[in-house]
Amino acid sequence: MEQILIRNIKIDVVRKDIKNIHLAVYPPSGRVRIAAPKDINDDTIRLFAVSKLGWIKQLQRKFEGQERIPPREYKNRESHYFQGRRYLLNIIEKDGPPKVILKTKTYIDLYLRPLTPVKKRHEIMTEWYRAELKQQIPAIIEKWEKQLNIGGTGWQVKQMKTKWGSCNIEKKRIWVNLELAKKPSGCLEYIIVHEMVHLMERHHNEQFLYYMDKYLPNWKQLKSELNKLPVSHADWNY
Question: CA-CA-CA-CA torsion for 43, 45, 51, 57, nearest 10 degrees?
Fold first, then answer.
């Protein structure tokens, strides 16, 4: 991938069939990426990057200070998050199929066979998160199809390393990051609305922002809340 170096900040440069330059700074590491029109020259890209250095450094400092959740060991009283709430894990060892049960506002019960390895515990919890998220999404999609006057929105859940969501406009399908099962429901709804609005406007331009302001006036607050929440220790490698 093409890269430029501006005052010790590495910036990935991707050339696309677009009209304008777009800059993004991604959590959790603060990776910087510029998408630029194919016919634009290198000097113009560098000047654009230099003009945005203050903003880039500000976001990178914010991501650096964001709380990180260390690798999970899936042991008793370990903290786990679900729909924005912190729970303590309660390990129950017994013969039988593994399962996860949420009974109280304090504990997540994880039923396991004795000596179940950490990798398998992770898989069981991950599938529980996936199933819970898939139960939440249809009602949100249905609500916003009516609000936005669109239909036939396909969706899938998957683990993503750089985005909370994505949208395939041609196939009318949105993808939702599995990690959103751990975040407040309002943040999940914000991401879904964001991706569904892309079915109306492909780019992050003034029209896109107009739609967001019109249909979800508090989207900026939800975005800020999502970015402030603890992020999982994942092998996020860009």
Answer: -130
